[in-house]
Amino acid sequence: MRDQALFDKIDLHLIRVLHTVLTERSVSRAALRLGMYQPAVSAALKRLRELSGDPLLVRSGAGMVPTDAGLRMIEPSANILQAAEVLFTDARGFDPQTARNTFRVAASDYLDPLFLPRLVSQIKSQAPLCHIEIHPLTAASDYHAQLARGEVDVVVGNWLKPPEELHLGKLFADEVVCLVSNDHPAVRRGWTPDDWLRAEHVAPTPTHPGARGVIDDHLESLGLARNITARCPHFGLIPAMVASSLLVLTSGRQYCERFVERLPVKILQCPIDFPELMYYQLWHERTHASASAKWLRELVKSVAAASRKQ
Length: 310
Fold this sequence. Notes:
Shape: elongated
Order of helices and strands: HHHHEEHEHEHEEEHHEHEHEHEEH
CATH class of the largest domain: Alpha Beta
Largest sheet: 5 strands, mixed
Number of strands: 12
Oligomer: single chain
Helix content: 40-55%
CATH architecture of the largest domain: 3-Layer(aba) Sandwich
Strand order of the largest sheet: 4-3-5-12-6
């Protein structure tokens, strides 16, 4: 920036307000996330508008949307905040007992219903002053962009072919099995591949437009398709749906085993061979060398390993 007087008016706090307002698309939500009073955020936004000569955030229907200039500022502001965090926290080394980082993890509960609660518990136990945000993997989320912009630090999930442009760490492999109610006919008489394909299946809502998931991607490679009659974005609710219907859930054994003693359900072998489900954590180059991000990734790995043993 050539105008030094203008540059001198910009501080890190103002950049944080800018990034939060633009990503939340709401002054009130930004205030909650920042732990500030709404009038203070509004005042900061007014300063930002004066500095940029642009409205940055404008009303659209019942909500707010960034202007073109505002959209162009999201990634650079994230870069500045990430650089500042690395500058001051990693420069002195990451001490979880005294650090005040905010860790952001994007994940679904399909890995294991106990994984995310245990991860949060471990972060709060080992880094008591740090904050933790769990972001969902939904059809509306773009985890590539979220990682690139610094909106999440790590993404946990399973993919047949993980994205090559991101760093990855393997967590564990799991067997594909089927979860059905105790009253499902297949419990008594077994089933053939054709029986399984014709059965009524329940599946998670795709994590992004056009995504099928690892089960249906593999079936397509075999020239097959199952009969999905129900979808649900909340994976943790699906076993209860299975318990009270003839729906079939095809997923990892570790996930299904958590419900066998709690619900009237059984685990059956799948009559079609599937490759093992491989669970990964993904992260962006921007946080690859960060000491705090490395600490988080090691914790994710250790929690996943501990869950696997139980």
